[in-house]
Amino acid sequence: MARTDTQPSNPEGFLNMLRAEAGRGMIPYLLVTAYALIVTTLLLIDPATSLRTDILFVLFLGVMLTLYKVPLAAGYKLVMAIALLGIAMPYFGTLNPFYMDVATQVGMFVVLALGLNIVVGMAGLLDLGYVAFYAVGAYLWAIFSTDQAANIIPRLADSFPLAPEWFFIFLFLGLIVGGFTGVLLGLPVLRLRGDYLAIVTLGFGEVIRVLATNLDRPVNITNGAQGIKSIGRPPLFFEPWVQALGVPLDRSQLYQLYFYFLVLVVVVVMIVVVYRLNNSRIGRAWASIREDETAAIAMGVPLVRMKLLAFAVGASFAGTMGVIFASKQLFINPPTFDLIRSINILAMVILGGMGSIPGAVLGATLVTLLNLQLLPRVARELSVLDVPSWLDPTQYQRMLFGMLLILMTVFRPEGLLPEDRRRQELHGQDESAMPDTLLESEQQQADVTEPDVDIQT
Questions:
Q1: Total domain count for the chain?
Q2: Range of the domain at 46
Q3: Cis status of the peptide bond prior to 218, with omega within 30 of 0
Q4: Domain end (from 294, 313, 342)
Q5: pTM above threshold 0.90
């Protein structure tokens, strides 16, 4: 007779049953809400900078990952995201500006990782000079928001520096100039693949950095190795409203909130744009180019146009974020845009999962937290214990990233949050990676073809 036992036959089946039971009804909503409330409350009780607060801040950002992974209603996820990122995080940032700055930089690198993910992850074009587009946007606003522009256009010297209101126009100019620079890079490398493409893009990034270092003569455009300081900031148009409400915030705190919300809006816009592109005809063309250029050409994919579009879209993201970076930092110089910065952004994409939008967000968050928060905090804790200075983990930062990438390549080459297609490519023959429904259908087929009823002769 056919089997009627529905109980799980192994520990894995039992765990899957528990997950299914926990995902029903109001249980997941209650658990996620409790998790968010506990972490947020503990952060607000004692916002002082410490190892405890660092851990709680990481757990706070982990709520967003939980919202993505747990099957919940879209409306609930949206309300929780607005409450956490739009209300709780800004309020906590006014109590401790350090974490507000970390959150802002996380958002900036998320945009950069999304841009590079288009070129590397979706179109399969290895780019090691991505930071050059970041530098183009930063220097664009830095030059025209200071007296440097008077050296380029002496006749209009009285018009510079530009008024703060020009910042919003330069956001779009950074988008356009960054995209145009991406096309300039894409034109000479259309016939290159793999290592050759990586070498050329690496050279392009170094060319931009060297130009920024040496364009101080015969006309002083970039101020050379000394960099550009006193860069203009956008206007605080909401400052009168804050003062009318009686909120006790100074201009530095207002600018921190300003840049935080500006970067948050840019992140949301970029995620929507990349998601729409990835699920469109353009995204499918990029995927075909990544898998096999010859087959893509045979199927009628316009190779030149799609490659140039990938470079242009990815570079435009970096150009826009360069404008924001320059206005936030108030000072830029050529070493800020070196090869190591490009490698860091590439590590974010690989760590999260090439071609995956949530993976790029997660990778950028983890690498930025390691750079700005976790490794410096460990170094400070070790200094209290009189540990030798040569054991300072910040000195081994590149080594740690290298080891992390090696481990990811060996044990999880698809990344932490991989794209479905990428996961299937790497684990197509792995039975453990097959969906439960497919395994169940195969078992049912086996039951039909091999009945337990004896046939009498």
A1: 2
A2: 30-95
A3: yes
A4: 342
A5: no
